[in-house]
Inverse folding.
C-alpha cells in the first residue's frame, strides 16, 4: 500500500519523515481500549469516510490525530491508493505552492527538468492528510479552497487544470474558530474542510488508560498484555499522571521503562523523571484533579508537607505514599509491598511527616 510523506528540503521539524523507521500504525478498531467517547468517535469516522465528506480531526498534541487519519484511510475504499501526509506547519511559504500543487517543466529557474507532481496530485485516488491545517499560510488557504471546490489543481506553469479526486482529512490542535475570529483562517475554507468533525479526547480524559498502557507494553515487549510486567505502584502512578503530551508521551515513557527495567518488570524506579517526581499530591497543584477519580476524599496537597528536592528522605517518602495510594490506604497491603511490618510503616509515616488518611479532613491523594 503506497504511503508518502512530505520531506521538504527546508522542513526542520517534520517529525514524520522518520516514519519509515517505526511505522507502527494501528487498525481503526485498535485505537480504543474501550473508552466510550473513542468508540463513538471511531464508529462515526467509519460511517463518514467513504461518503466524500472532508473530515476534520481535532485534539491536543499527541492524541493520535495522524494515527486516526491513517487508520481511516486503511479502513476506506481508497486503501489501495496513496495516503499522502503534509505538515502545513513545516512548509516554508516560498516552497508551499510548488510542493502542494506541483509545477511543469521549465516553470521557474531551479525547477526539476521534468517538472514535479504536487502532493495533492500524488494523493489522487487516495487520501490527502493536511496536518496542522491551522498553520497553513493564508495565501495558500485561498489556493487550497479553489482546489477543493473545483476538484482540480493547476500546477505552476501548466496550461490546463488537472482533475484530482482525494479524500481530504485535516487535523489541528488549534481552535480554528478563534483563528477565524482573528482573521488568520478563512471561514469559507473551514466549512469546506469541516464536513465531519472528530474530536479526539485528551488521554487524561480516557477511561481506557489501563488497557492502553498494557497494550503499549505488550507491543514493546512483543506478546500479550500481562499485568505482571508492571508493579502496582508504577501502574498507579501512570494512571494518575495527567499526560500533557498524551499518547506520544505515554508511548515514549513505556519505551523508556521497558528499556531500563530489570527482571522483566517495570518498577517505579524505572519510570522517567517526570513520573518519578510526580506524586498524586501534585494533582492539587496541576488543576488536573477533575479528570481523576479520587479513591479517598479529595484533598489539599498541603496536608502532606512536601520536602524539597535534595532531601534524602524525599524518595522514600514518595515510595511510601505510592504504596499507600496503590493499596488505597490498606496498611497491611502497603507494608507488605514495602517489605516492612505494620508497626514499622506507622513509624515511617510519623518519621516522614505523612499524616494518616483518617486523621485528615481532606487527604490529598487520588488515582485514576
Ligand atoms: N493508538 C495508539 N496506540 C499507541 N500509540 C499511539 C497511538 N496513537 C498515537 N500513538 C503514539 O503517539 C504518537 C503521536 O501520535 P500522532 O502523531 O497520531 O498524534 P497527533 O495528535 O497527530 O500529534 P500532533 O498534534 O503532535 O501532530 C505516535 O507517534 C505514537 O507513538
Amino acid at each position: 500500500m503506497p504511503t508518502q510523506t512530505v520531506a521538504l528540503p527546508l522542513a526542520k521539524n517534520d517529525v514524520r519523515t522518520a516514519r519509515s523507521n517505526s511505522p507502527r500504525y494501528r487498525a481503526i478498531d485498535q485505537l480504543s481500549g474501550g473508552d466510550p467517547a473513542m468508540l463513538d468517535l471511531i464508529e462515526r469516522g467509519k460511517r463518514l469516510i467513504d461518503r466524500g465528506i472532508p473530515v476534520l480531526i481535532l485534539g491536543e498534541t499527541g492524541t493520535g490525530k495522524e494515527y486516526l487519519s491513517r487508520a481511516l484511510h486503511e479502513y476506506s475504499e481508497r486503501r489501495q491508493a496513496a495516503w499522502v501526509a503534509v505538515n502545513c506547519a513545516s512548509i516554508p511559504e516560498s516552497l508551499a505552492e510548488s510542493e502542494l500543487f506541483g509545477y511543469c517543466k521549465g516553470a521557474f529557474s531551479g525547477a526539476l527538468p521534468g517538472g514535479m507532481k504536487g502532493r495533492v496530485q500524488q494523493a489522487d485516488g487516495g487520501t490527502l492528510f493536511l496536518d496542522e491545517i491551522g498553520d497553513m499560510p493564508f495565501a495558500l488557504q485561498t489556493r487550497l479552497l479553489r482546489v477543493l471546490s473545483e476538484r482540480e489543481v493547476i500546477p505552476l506553469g501548466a496550461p490546463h487544470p488537472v482533475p484530482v479526486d482525494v479524500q481530504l482529512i485535516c487535523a489541528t490542535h488549534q481552535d480554528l474558530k478563534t483563528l477565524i475570529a482573528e482573521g488568520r483562517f478563512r471561514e469559507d475554507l473551514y466549512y469546506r474542510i469541516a464536513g465531519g468533525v472528530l474530536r479526539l479526547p485528551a488521554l487524561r480524559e480516557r477511561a481506557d488508560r489501563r488497557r492502553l498502557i498494557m497494550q503499549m507494553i505488550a507491543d514493546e515487549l512483543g506478546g500479550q498484555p500481562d499485568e505482571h510486567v508492571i508493579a502496582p505502584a508504577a501502574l498507579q502512578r501512570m494512571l494518575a499522571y495527567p499526560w500533557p503530551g498524551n499518547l506520544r508521551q505515554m508511548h515514549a515513557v513505556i519505551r523508556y521503562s521497558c528499556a531500563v527495567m530489570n527482571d522483566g518488570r517495570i518498577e517505579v524506579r524505572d519510570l522517567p523523571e517526570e513520573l518519578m517526581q510526580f506524586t498524586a499530591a501534585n494533582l492539587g497543584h496541576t488543576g488536573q484533579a477533575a479528570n481523576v477519580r479520587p479513591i479517598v476524599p479529595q484533598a489539599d496537597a498541603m496536608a502532606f508537607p512536601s520536602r524539597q528536592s535534595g532531601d534524602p528522605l524525599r524518595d522514600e517518602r514518595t515510595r511510601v505514599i505510592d504504596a499507600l495510594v496503590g493499596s488505597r490506604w490498606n496498611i497491611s497491603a502497603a507494608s507488605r509491598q514495602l517489605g516492612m511490618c505494620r508497626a514499622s510503616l506507622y513509624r515511617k509515616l510519623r518519621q516522614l511527616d505523612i499524616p494518616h488518611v483518617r486523621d485528615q479532613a481532606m487527604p490529598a491523594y487520588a488515582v485514576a
Remarks:
- The domain at 3-201 is CATH 3.40.50.300 (Rossmann fold).
- Residues 26, 31, 59, 61-67, 131, 173, 216, 247-248, 251 surround adenosine-5'-triphosphate (CB under 6 Å).
- Residues 1-22, 283-310, 359-368 have pLDDT under 50 and may be disordered.
- The chain is about 40% helix and 10% strand.
